[in-house]
Design brief:
alpha+beta, Alpha-Beta Plaits, four-stranded antiparallel sheet, 2 helices
Length: 95
């Protein structure tokens, strides 16, 4: 079993309320879940308006496939033009 974990820091420059942040994150999370069949959630900075940290996880049996999925998710979120990706880290665990 191979577990892929990604931590992604995103910036919401034109956001000025927690309600606006939640709307943008909800849209990104729902679209990513539907498209890639992954687990994704906000894991840090819940009270900051213009910054969020997302945790993303994918499980499978092929290391290259899991790495590819996480790379595609990062590219997908970057291309939404709703946010800017400040930092992302991927870790692959063989279990």
């Amino acid at each position: 079993m191979v577990i892929g974990v990604c931590q992604m820091e995103i910036l919401l420059h034109e956001n000025f309320s927690l309600k606006g942040k939640r709307q943008v994150l909800r849209s990104i999370v729902q679209r990513a879940r539907k498209r890639f069949n992954i687990s994704i959630s906000e894991v840090e900075d819940h009270d900051l308006w213009q910054r969020a940290v997302l945790g993303i996880c994918a499980v499978g049996n092929d290391r290259q496939h899991i790495n590819s999925i996480l790379d595609q998710v990062i590219n997908f979120i970057e291309n939404t033009q709703l946010t800017d990706v400040a930092n992302s880290q991927i870790e692959i665990i063989n279990y």
